[in-house]
């Protein structure tokens, strides 16, 4: 008996709608190649309908009391907590990461939802009393209108939750385009958002590829666009959307380094290096893909390899799994081709993770932990973002040499240092030209009280997602200068100067 493959719906004006498109893509379990669902590439009419619904909803949502908005997100965070295991199971099935890591994915997004529930303390203006005779000046922060988000496959829960909760809490309406590779957990989160009380039209979802991205960039009624993904697509989105007059923030590719000094706590450092390099099969924009060993720490290569060999490669659903599959067959082939190129270009392959044996999941897109030593800046495995479980080991003689090596890389997402020297750590944080810095912390993604602050080639746009910066991104600041007169005030003469007297 044949089974019917479920279809992913669009969300337009509060209704989950079956697309009328003729273009579909399969959502595939990367550990088994099972087709889980079919996702539509929305038509122009459907995309326009989603934006129109958001535009109409904004007219009333913008005036919704701030406490009402906050209470919706208090309810939403409760619903996410209650459904955490279900969300993680959906995420693992379509994306591949382990169940524990999938829960982490959801939880880091949940933190931003909790932050959105605090909007009353965040979206506050300023007041200066009596700046001139009887004149007050104050600011208010109001929603922009329709905002949009374009999210990647590697964090299908966290990154959508970076975007629409903060935008909606600030008084905007929103159109979300999830990754077409794994939209199922995103849609479940959207269902919970509606259950929490987000009104019809305030949150809408479309699906698609390049055509949908361009439609978001071009649509005159969309005022701001948030993007997380590859440098190639992010650069395209930034230039196309800014030319259309929109505010844009793009968090893009990376090549993240960690410096290891000889005085570092060895056990702590090895555990952190391996976890940050190979967790989520290296499919993180904050993955630690390069370690720079300084001085006597160059003797640690064999220890790094030995620790990596202890990791278990298996389906994310299986107990004890450390590394699940990469997202697709194409991704696996790309990672394997870059490993082959690293060998061709002269790096020493200390650990080869190609073609691991995974019993029961022979069709999965698996690549095991892979380590190269003797890596130099001109090699493809160094200057390209591999987005797989591949760690490059670079040798440096001094801390100054290591910092200079990091600074010559065009990316600036994250970096870390492992040391017990406060002086070395302070020198590193002051001199390294990277936006997010860890000191004995391998993946320095900030909590939502602070903003994600990647820099240089990893970011386009001035303001980052979540934290205080995103309030500025999703609001328009209005400055009001006011003077009031009572009935007994005697009118003076006409003042033709610019001064307030």
Automatic annotation (TrEMBL):
Its EC number is 1.2.1.27. One of its GO terms (biological process) is thymine catabolic process. Residues 16-480 form the Aldehyde dehydrogenase domain. Gene3D superfamilies: Aldehyde Dehydrogenase, Chain A, domain 1, Aldehyde Dehydrogenase, Chain A, domain 2. It is an enzyme of class 1 (oxidoreductase). GO terms for molecular function: methylmalonate-semialdehyde dehydrogenase (acylating, NAD) activity. It comes from the Bacteria. Keywords: NAD, Oxidoreductase. InterPro entries: Ald_DH/histidinol_DH, Ald_DH_C, Ald_DH_CS_CYS, Ald_DH_N, Aldehyde_DH_dom, MeMal-semiAld_DH. Belongs to the aldehyde dehydrogenase family. This is methylmalonate-semialdehyde dehydrogenase (CoA acylating).
């Amino acid at each position: 008996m044949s089974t019917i493959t479920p279809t992913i719906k669009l969300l337009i004006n509060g209704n989950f709608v079956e697309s009328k498109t003729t273009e579909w893509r399969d959502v595939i379990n990367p550990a088994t190649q099972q087709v889980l669902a079919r996702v539509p590439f929305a038509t122009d009419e459907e995309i326009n309908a989603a934006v129109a619904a958001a535009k109409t909803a904004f007219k009333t949502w913008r005036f919704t009391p701030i406490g009402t908005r906050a209470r919706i997100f208090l309810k939403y965070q409760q619903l996410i907590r209650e459904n955490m295991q279900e969300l993680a199971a959906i995420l693992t099935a379509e994306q591949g990461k382990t169940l524990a890591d999938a829960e982490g994915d959801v939880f880091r997004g949940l933190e931003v939802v909790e932050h959105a529930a605090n909007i009353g303390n965040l979206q506050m203006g300023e007041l200066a009393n009596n700046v001139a005779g009887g004149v007050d000046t104050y600011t208010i922060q109001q929603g922009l209108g329709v905002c949009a988000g374009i999210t990647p496959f590697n964090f299908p829960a966290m990154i959508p939750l970076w975007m629409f909760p903060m935008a909606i809490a600030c008084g905007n309406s929103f159109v979300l385009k999830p990754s077409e590779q794994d939209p199922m957990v995103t849609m479940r989160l959207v269902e919970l958002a509606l259950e929490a009380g987000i009104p019809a039209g305030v949150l809408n979802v479309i699906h698609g590829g390049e055509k949908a991205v361009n439609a978001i960039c071009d649509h005159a009624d969309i005022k701001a666009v948030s993007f997380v993904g590859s440098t190639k697509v992010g650069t395209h989105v930034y230039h196309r959307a800014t030319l259309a007059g929109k505010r844009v923030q793009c968090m893009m590719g990376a090549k993240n380094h960690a410096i290891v000094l000889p005085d570092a706590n060895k056990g702590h450092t090895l555990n952190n290096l391996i976890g940050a390099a190979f967790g989520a099969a290296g499919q993180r924009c904050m993955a630690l893909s390069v370690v720079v060993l300084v001085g006597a720490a160059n003797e640690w290569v064999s220890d790094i390899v030995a620790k990596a060999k202890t990791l278990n490669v298996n389906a994310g659903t299986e107990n004890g799994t450390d590394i699940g599959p990469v997202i697709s067959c194409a991704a696996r082939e790309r990672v394997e081709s870059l490993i082959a190129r690293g060998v061709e270009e002269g790096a020493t392959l200390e650990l080869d993770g190609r073609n691991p044996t995974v019993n029961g999941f022979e069709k999965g897109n698996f690549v095991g932990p892979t380590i190269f030593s003797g890596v130099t800046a001109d090699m493809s495995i160094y200057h390209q973002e591999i987005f797989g479980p591949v760690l490059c080991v670079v040798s440096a003689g001094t801390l100054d040499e290591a910092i200079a090596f990091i600074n010559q890389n065009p990316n600036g997402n994250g970096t870390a240092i492992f040391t017990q020297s406060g002086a070395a750590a302070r020198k590193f944080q002051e001199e390294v030209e990277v936006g997010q810095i860890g000191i004995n912390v391998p993946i320095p993604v900030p909590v939502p009280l602070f903003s994600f602050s990647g820099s240089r080639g990893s970011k386009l746009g001035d303001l980052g997602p979540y934290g205080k910066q995103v309030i500025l991104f999703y609001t328009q600041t209005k400055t009001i200068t006011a003077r009031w007169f009572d009935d007994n005030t005697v009118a003076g003469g006409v003042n033709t100067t610019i001064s307030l007297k």
